[in-house]
């Protein structure tokens, strides 16, 4: 090997939120960066790397003079802007678009403030990296990536430097330094240099990185570090020392690679994990709220963007809700490893995002409704209320053909004629063409407020709503003698028999004392063993979970006890939906399931409410369906066998030989393990906040991180189903609004946008940053090269061809009837 080159890179890791709240974390950015600047002025060799646009933005706003000092050092190359992100997010749990938005948000800030985008992605402390990250990085304009976690004992890799291949043809030049982690102790400089010298000869590349500097709450290089570097360098003239940066290192590494054969450095494909596995499920109440915020913001953005383009109205500014989502993706917030005070603040922040998104969507759909012909039938008799006009909005770029719950007041005051006879009130539902719509009455949410007084009615009805479009319905109280005949229910219907519900495809039953819920599909057990069941497992391992290098780690969780059925009740009896309430109770905790079957739908829908009162324990759903599964992860899918607790996003698919397989879809759950033929989904785990497992004593006065009530949804379906589409339908459902009945230029039913090509997912539809048109982002998910075809505001557009698995972005500009699609980069959106 030719002469080794040690690139000495000074850094200081700053967690905006962890064992402190965001106020202390952001101001630590001010403190640390000022100290580094002073040291750089004193010692002309010192170089420094700093990422996260959030930190720079705080410095710019709070201390403009310091911001200008930073810019001067950036111009000389001594201060290196790295990462390309808004915040150093977790890279296993956020959605694909959230991760991409984190990178694009950062790149846009850095380009605007420093004149160019960041070249090197840098993820010092994230707890593993999704297999789809190379594609996400490429889509954000990044071709180089460095990280330190997971460490070598946790994850073996083919070398310090390697090509990391993602979906399709995506790849990034990736480096994990020889040193163990992203910073050092005050006394750690010489040991780190010795370690690098000892291990470097085993690597092909002569350019090696030596990270140094304090930094788990700011800090950075110290004078002692610098003195020890210089003293050690004198003793090792055989090594070339460079006070460097990530950008310089990668430029030198690429120059070295260019002088060697194509296979000079190895290749790697797949996910880089695992580490800190407790983070996949810790602090469920924050995770559940986070996922709700993500879906609310994405849905509101697409809805508002397309409606605003149609109506030529100013789109809503959703930058603050998006910043909240991105900030709360931070690797000590979303993974649930921060203190209670900080977690409470971040959940309040997420509440602001949900409120902002809901308001934007409400205003947009209302604005659309004011342009739609929403006129209703005349009242049946004098002094009777007219029908209530409703607009049903479908936020997805594919047609909705399914069931919706609709609720409205039938009059401005209760209908006293039917007091004590609320189920006898005659009313009807009509579709956009004025035809009677079949429906099934269900309990209104206010039914316990006025149980004997009829006023509001709620129904479930089969409806069809065009892709990213609307349809109108009306609900009306009618005289008994004018009540229309209700349309005949479908031949295949949802119904009950005894304590079982069925829909011609699934049959579900259980009994008090049973270990679980039995589910049959087409007469055969869909889930073997105890069926759908739940259990409590011992979990003394704290917020981060059991260390990967612990030789005593369990291959499977340690069972404490299983929950048993303590109550069963049929709630709804069809014909369009039948539902069964099942309570699974343990020693102190319970899980309430409302299990629903719909006519003609090959899917089991479950509303879950858990009441958790455990300390140092976790609750899991158990599915004896197999232990090798395909998992949805950010930017990709991966297949895993038994590996302990692993992260996933929206769905898991288990293939079964000779059968359609099994699929689990959820709006909230992100941690799974599979072994011994059983797939387990972690619902909730509870230790103390920011709890270190080395401290095993449990103190009752210290709060448990997830005591109390949590709500989530999931569905079960055959593995042959279109899981990405079903997941979107579960997460972002059609909405409805009662609106004024009035004439308007738009028809009673219409579509504003759709994706015509199967296997192409919508990641984002948003206003262009310059206000000139729309930005459309898609990802191919069927594993084939395709030219996506979309319809936007009535215009059919065939887009540029994209590779298998590729994420691509287009700008759509021009008049609605004549939009031009142009492939665009991060800086243009």
Any descriptors?
alpha+beta; 829 residues; single chain; nine-stranded antiparallel sheet; 12 helices; 45 strands; 7-stranded beta/alpha barrel; six-stranded antiparallel sheet; Beta-galactosidase, Chain A, domain 5; 3 domains; 22% helix
| CATH homologous superfamily descriptor of the largest domain | Glycoside hydrolase 38, N terminal domain
Low-pLDDT residue spans: none
| CATH topology (level 3) name of the largest domain | 7-stranded beta/alpha barrel
Strand order of the largest sheet: 24-25-26-27-36-33-32-29-30
Our count of domains comes out at: 3
Strand content: 25-35%
Mean pLDDT over all positions: 93
Report helical residue fraction: 10-25%
How many strand units?
Answer: 45
Radius of gyration: 29 Å
The CATH architecture of the largest domain:
Alpha-Beta Barrel
How would you classify the helix and strand content by structural class?
alpha+beta
Q: State the major sheet.
A: 9 strands, antiparallel
Inertia-based shape: globular
Distance between the termini: 45 Å
H/I helix tally: 12
* CATH class group of the largest domain: Alpha Beta
Question: Would you write up a description of this structure?
Answer:
The chain has 829 residues and is of the alpha+beta class. It folds into three domains: 271 residues, 7-stranded beta/alpha barrel (Alpha-Beta Barrel), CATH 3.20.110; 236 residues, Beta-galactosidase, Chain A, domain 5; 74 residues, no CATH class. Helix content is 22%, strand content 30%. The chain starts with a strand and ends in a 6-residue tail after the last strand. The model has no long low-confidence stretch (mean pLDDT 93).
């Amino acid at each position: 090997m030719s002469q080794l080159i040690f690139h000495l890179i000074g850094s200081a890791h700053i967690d905006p939120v962890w064992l402190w709240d965001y106020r202390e974390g952001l101001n630590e950015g001010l403190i640390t960066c000022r100290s580094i600047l002073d040291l750089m002025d004193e010692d002309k060799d010192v170089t420094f790397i700093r990422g996260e646009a959030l930190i720079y933005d705080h410095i710019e706003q709070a201390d403009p003079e310091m911001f200008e000092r930073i810019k001067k050092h950036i111009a000389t190359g001594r201060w290196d802007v790295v990462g390309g992100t808004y915040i150093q997010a977790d890279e296993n749990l956020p959605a694909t678009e959230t991760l991409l938005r984190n990178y694009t948000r950062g790149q846009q800030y850095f380009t605007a403030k420093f004149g160019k985008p960041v070249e090197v992605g840098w993820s010092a402390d994230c707890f593993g990296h999704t297999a789809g990250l190379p594609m996400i990085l490429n889509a954000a304009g990044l071709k180089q990536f460095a990280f330190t976690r997971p460490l070598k004992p946790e994850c073996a890799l083919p070398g310090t430097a390697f090509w990391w291949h993602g979906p399709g043809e995506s790849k990034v030049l990736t480096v994990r330094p020889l040193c163990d982690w992203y910073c050092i102790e005050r006394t750690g400089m010489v040991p780190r240099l010795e370690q690098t010298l000892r291990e470097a000869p085993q690597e092909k590349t002569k350019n090696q990185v030596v990270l140094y500097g304090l930094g788990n709450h700011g800090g950075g290089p110290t004078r002692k570090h610098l003195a020890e570097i210089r003293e050690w360098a004198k003793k090792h003239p055989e090594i070339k020392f460079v006070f460097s940066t990530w950008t310089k290192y990668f430029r030198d590494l690429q120059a070295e690679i260019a002088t060697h054969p194509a296979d000079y450095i190895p290749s790697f494909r797949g996910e880089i994990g695992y580490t800190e596995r407790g983070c996949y499920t810790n602090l469920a109440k924050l995770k559940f709220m986070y996922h709700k915020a993500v879906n609310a913001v994405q849905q509101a953005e697409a809805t508002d963007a397309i409606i605003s383009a149609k109506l030529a109205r100013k789109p809503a500014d959703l930058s603050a809700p998006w910043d909240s989502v991105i900030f709360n993706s931070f690797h000590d917030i979303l993974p649930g490893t921060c203190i209670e005070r900080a977690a409470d603040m971040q959940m309040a922040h997420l509440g602001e995002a949900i409120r902002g998104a809901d308001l934007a969507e409400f205003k947009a759909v209302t604005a659309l409704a004011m342009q739609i012909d929403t006129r209703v039938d005349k009242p049946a008799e004098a002094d009777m209320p007219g029908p209530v006009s409703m607009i049903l909005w479908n936020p997805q770029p594919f047609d909705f053909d399914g069931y919706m719950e609709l609720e409205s007041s039938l009059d401005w005051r209760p209908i006293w004629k039917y007091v004590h006879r609320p189920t006898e009130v005659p009313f009807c539902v009509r579709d956009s063409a004025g035809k009677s719509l079949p429906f099934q009455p269900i309990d209104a949410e206010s039914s316990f407020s006025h149980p004997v007084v009829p006023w509001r009615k709620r129904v479930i009805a089969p409806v069809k709503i065009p892709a990213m479009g609307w349809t109108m319905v009306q609900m009306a109280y009618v005289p008994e003698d004018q009540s229309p005949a209700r349309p005949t229910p479908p031949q295949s219907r949802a119904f009950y028999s005894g304590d079982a519900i069925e829909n011609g495809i699934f049959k579900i039953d259980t009994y008090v004392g049973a270990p679980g819920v039995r589910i049959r599909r087409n007469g055969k057990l869909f889930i073997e063993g105890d069926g759908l069941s739940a259990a409590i497992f011992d979990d003394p391992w704290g917020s981060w979970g059991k260390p990967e290098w612990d030789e005593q780690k369990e291959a499977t969780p340690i069972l404490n006890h299983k929950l048993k059925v303590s109550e069963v009740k049929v709630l709804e009896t069809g014909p369009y939906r039948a539902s069964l309430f099942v309570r699974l109770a343990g020693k102190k905790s319970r899980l309430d399931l409302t299990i629903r079957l719909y006519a003609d739908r090959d899917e089991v829908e479950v509303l879950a409410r858990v009441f958790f009162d455990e300390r140092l324990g976790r609750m899991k759903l158990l599915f004896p369906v197999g232990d090798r599964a395909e998992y949805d992860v950010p930017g990709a899918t991966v297949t895993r066998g038994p590996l302990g607790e692993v992260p996933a996003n929206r769905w898991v698919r288990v293939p079964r030989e000779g059968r359609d397989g099994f699929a689990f879809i959820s709006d909230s759950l992100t941690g799974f393990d599979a072994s011994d033929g059983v797939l387990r989904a972690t619902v909730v785990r509870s230790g103390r906040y920011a709890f270190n497992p080395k401290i095993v004593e449990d103190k009752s006065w210290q709060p448990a991180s997830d005591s109390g009530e949590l709500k989530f949804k999931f569905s079960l379906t055959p593995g042959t189903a279109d899981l990405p589409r079903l997941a979107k339908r579960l997460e972002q459902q059609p909405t409805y609004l009662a609106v004024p009945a009035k004439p308007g230029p738009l028809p009673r039913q219409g579509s504003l946008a759709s994706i015509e090509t199967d296997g192409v997912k919508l990641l984002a539809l948003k206003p262009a940053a310059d206000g000139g048109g729309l930005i459309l982002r898609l990802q191919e998910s069927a594993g084939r090269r395709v030219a996506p075809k979309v319809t936007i505001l009535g215009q059919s557009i065939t887009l540029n061809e994209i590779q298998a698995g590729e994420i691509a972005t287009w700008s759509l500009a021009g008049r609605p009837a004549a939009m031009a699609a142009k492939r665009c980069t991060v800086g243009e959106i």
